[in-house]
Every structure is written in C-alpha cells, then in structure tokens.
Amino acid sequence: MAKGKKPWGGRFQKATAESVDRFTASIHFDQRLCPYDIEGSIAHVTMLARQNIISKSESLKIVAALKAILKDYLRGKFEFTSADEDIHMAVEKELIRRIGEIGGKLHTARSRNDQVALDVKLFLRAENNNILVAIRSLQTVLIRRAKKEIKTIMPGYTHMQKAQPVLLSHYLLAFVEMFARDAQRLEACGNRLNVLPLGAAALAGTGLPIDRALTAKMLKFPAVTENSMDTVADRDFIAEFIFCTSLVMMHLSRFCEDLVLWSSDEFGFAEISDAYTTGSSIMPQKKNPDIAELIRGKTARVYGDLVTIMTLLKGLPMTYNRDLQEDKEPLFDAVDTMKDCLSIFTEMIKNTTFNAAAMNRAARGGFSTATEIAEYLVRRGVPFRRAHEITGKIVAYCLKYKKELEDLTISDYKNYDKRFTDDIKNAIKLENAVNARRHTGGTAAKAVLQRINEFEKSMDKSC
Ligand code: ARG
Questions:
Q1: pLDDT tens, the chain, 463 aa long
Q2: 10 Å Cβ neighbour count for 329?
Q3: Spelled out in words, what is the top-level CATH class assigned to the domain 18-108?
C-alpha cells in the first residue's frame, strides 16, 4: 500500500493530513488489545473458511501470519505509528504487508464496529477473571486476620462517636461481605457481556453466509447478540464494569479512611509497617499512611472514568459513532487502577498490626455498654422506651459525677430501678456485651466464627 494510503482510502482523492492522523488515532492506547484482536480474527477467518466464503488454504495462510504477528507483538517487536490509526488497522496492514492481497480477505463480513466490541469484551473477560482472583486473595487475608483477632474488642462507631463494642474480627468481616458482593456483581457483569458481537458488521449484519454460532463456539461465548444495531452501539458492559469497579474502589477507600484515622497518634489502633508508609521531606518524625490516602484519591479517578463513559453515551444517535473510541481510556484506567489498588492494599493490610490494648481501652470509654443496661431492664419486663430513659438518667448521673458505668455500685443502680440486681455488673462488661449478640449477623465471637467458617467453605469451593 502506498505511503499515507488508508485501507479505506478508495474514495479519497487526498491523503489525510498528518494532524488528522494524530487526532483520530487510538493506536497508542488500544494496542494492548492486540492479543484479543488477533484471537478474534483467527476465529473469524476460520469460520469464513468453514462457510466456504474464503478457501481453506487462504484461511490457513492468514491464521499463520496472524500468529506470527502476535508472537512479534508479545516480544515487543511489532511497532506502531499514528498513521496506523487503531489496532485493527495496524494488524490488517501488517498482515497484508506479510502475505500480500490474501490478507485483505480477513475483513470479509466484518466491520471494525463489531470487531472493536469483540476485542473489548475479550479483554474484559480476561481482566474480570484477574480481578476476581485479586478480590478473593484480599478476602482470604482478611478472613485469616479475623480469625486471629477473634478476641480483640474495639469501639464500633456511628456518627464517628463511640457507639457499641464490637470484635475487630466483625469489622474485618464487614469488608469481606462488601468484597463478596463486589465479586458477585463482577461475575454477573461478566456473564452479561459474554455474548458474541461479531457478525453485526457495520450495523446491519452481512449478506454473506456467516455462521455466528460457530465463531461464538470457537471464542467460548455461550450466546450471540440478537440485534446488530444494538450490538455496535452498545457499551453498557463498559459502564456496568466501571460501576462495579467504582464500588470496589469505594469499599477500599472507606477501609483506607479508617486506617488513616487508626494510625494517627490520637487513635493508635493500627500501625502500618514502615515498608508500606512514607516519610515527610521536612518533618523527620513523620510516618505517613500514603498508600491508604492514595487509594482514597484514586477512587475519585475511577469515579471520573464512570462519569466519562456515562456522559459519552447519553447523547449518541444510533448506532456506532466515533465518540465510542473514547470508551477505552477510562476503561483501561479503571481496570489498571483497581488492580493496582487491590494488590497494594492486600500487601499493606498483611503488613499492618492492630493495637488490641488501645482498642480495648477506647471501647471501655464513652458509655459504650449503655444499651446493655437498657436491654437488661427489657429482659425484666420494662418497655424499651422506659428502659432507655432510665439508662439515659444513669448516664447523665455518671457525666455529672465524672464516673464510668463500671464505677457505679449496685445500690447506685437500684436508685434508678428496683429491678437491678448484682448481675448488672456482669452485663456491662465489654466481653459480655459483645458475646450477647449471638444472632446471625451479630458481633458475638460465636456468630463471627460461624461466618468465618461459611466464608472459608465457599472460598474453598470457588478456588
Ligand atoms: N478505533 C475505533 C474505536 O475504538 C474502532 C472502530 C472504528 N470504526 C469506524 N467505523 N471508524 O471505536
């Protein structure tokens, strides 16, 4: 092909301006789709031969050349320029350069519009699996830690005020639950996108006798898309995937926010290992939780990716429009950022220790077992509202005389209600308060261990 001449150049009198090549090119970011592009092309060309649309020997020649191109790409030997426009053009051009005109048969019954949808789906399918593995390994680390910390009691907060004592294990398992939902969501998204787009061609399908089911089988798609217009216009799967990513990031970010607080001198609940913190260029004493902060920051970036794809799609007329080329950078950014964050977070949490004594100390203060007193009275027949009021008065008394609930004598309690007996002192002990919550979802060690057990069983199954 003459220099500057495009594969689609037939109807053009002039070569495109260099600035246009540069402006319209996506090769600098979509070249990472190369392995998927070639995988899709091999299946497509094999189907063409089976359907006698091209000859067997032509298809074998094309397949061999595509495999050789892939090999070169994987060795970093396949060079691209902006004149290549995108990965689809680059591969086709290289194919024709290597085997001549026969290479031009590859694009029979296909358009870049269905081709690019296929490439992105294949990419997402592979990355989704990697991400699910990363989520699972983070869950495993958290479960292991939850088991180890089964006796550690910390204050649970609402409104950032001490609320009730909980097990640190219960806190850790809360995130295992979040990541379990994330994994389910990603799996569902993966199933929904696992539908072959190839065959939609530009937008209306093709008059050539293709066999879409055969291509689907070769590429391991359980189904083919049902409407060619929808197929080339659809980027729902990208939006959905980035939304799933945003939720994973949000969960990581909330965990990070707690870790930042907990590693402050004021809290002293956690210490992130030196290897996973950074120093200050001016203050020699500083040890900063930068990884946690950066994950929080990068969450904003992934939300930006989600907003980009949603905005990109909202005003597009049917069907394919070149705007859609802008779908890839936010997608790649979301995938790369999430993978990075999952991996560094998992390392960091493995290298973080929790200060059980500081947590326990903090859990004791702030009348965090006041609800126990109310529930104690409820067990003795007092309506909850009344029990709440009596307990409130006891707390007010403590505040006035600068006492903790444990400091009160049994006769102090009896002043507020005759139904109090000696065992109230036991009921307000942290361990007892925690272990009283034995129902499903409660923070008692028994309930938490039960959930750990269930998680371990389901993880075993999914590995
Ligand atoms: N690079 C394009 C994209 O990413 C490929 C499809 C181009 N199709 C077209 N008809 N110009 O969307």
A1: 445 567 777 888 788 899 999 999 999 999 999 999 999 999 999 999 999 999 999 999 999 999 999 999 999 999 887 778 999 999 999 999 999 999 999 999 999 999 999 999 999 999 999 999 999 999 999 999 999 999 999 999 999 999 999 999 999 999 999 999 999 999 999 999 999 999 999 999 999 999 999 999 999 999 999 999 999 999 999 999 999 999 999 999 999 999 999 999 999 999 999 999 988 787 878 789 999 999 999 999 999 999 999 999 999 999 999 999 999 999 999 999 999 999 999 999 999 999 999 999 999 988 989 999 999 999 999 999 999 999 999 999 999 999 999 999 999 999 999 999 999 999 999 999 999 999 999 999 999 999 999 999 998 876 5
A2: 16
A3: mainly alpha
> Can you tell me the distance from the alpha carbon of 356 to that of 365, in angstroms, rounded to the nearest whole number?
15
Q: What's the whole-model pTM score?
A: 0.94
Maximum C-alpha span of the chain: 101
Q: Which of 55, 57, 264, 280 is catalytic?
A: 280
Place of tokens 């002990």: 429
Domain ranges for the chain, please list them. Answer: 18-108, 113-200+226-359, 363-450
Residues forming beta bridges with residue 165, ordered by sequence position: 155
Q: Is the CB of 31 under 6 A from ligand 1?
A: no
For residue 208, how far is its CA from the centre of ligand 1 (angstroms)?
Answer: 22
Q: Is the CB of 322 under 6 A from ligand 1?
A: yes
- Is the C-beta atom of 128 inside 6 A of ligand 1? no
Fold of 113-200+226-359: Fumarase C; Chain A, domain 2 (1.20.200)
Half-sphere exposure of 147 (CA within 13 A, CB side): 11
Domain topology for 363-450: Ribonucleotide Reductase Protein R1; domain 1 (1.10.40)
